[in-house]
Amino acid sequence: MAVRDHRAKFPSRLRGSDRLSTKQYARIVKAWVTAIGLDPAMYGIHTLGRTKASLIYRKTKNLRAVQLLLGHTKLESTVLYLGIEVDDALERAEQTEV
Asked: How confident is the model at residue 73 (pLDDT cuts 50, 70, 90)?
C-alpha cells in the first residue's frame, strides 16, 4: 500500500476540479525551468519525481521505503525505475526493516 495524501498539493482555480491537471502542472514546471535558464526538454514532472526517488534511495539506501513512496507493488519495479544494480538493491532491501 502506497503512502498517499489525497489533498491536492496544487489546487486548481477551476470549479469542478480540486487539483491541477497533469498538463497544467507540466506547463508550470516548464515555465519555471525556462525562467531559470535551463533546457525544458531536460526537466519534466516525471524526471523531477524520479530524481526525488533516486535522491531518497541514495541517501537512505532504503529500497523498501522508496518502493512504498512510489506505490510500486514489486520491488523489482522500483529497482528498474531507479536504474540500480539488482543484486545490490535486493541485498540492501533484505538488510532494511520497514
From this structure: very high
Q: What is the pTM of this model?
A: 0.57
CB 70 within 8 A of CB 81: yes
Question: Crossing angle, helix 75-82 and helix 86-95, to 10 degrees?
Answer: 130
- Number of C-beta neighbours around residue 83 at 10 A: 8
The string of DSSP letters for 11-80 reads: --SSTT-SS--HHHHHHHHHHHHHHTT--GGG--HHHHHHHHHHHHHHHH--HHHHHHHHT-SSHHHHHH
Q: Which residues contact 93 (CB under 8 A, 6 or more apart)?
A: 63, 64, 75
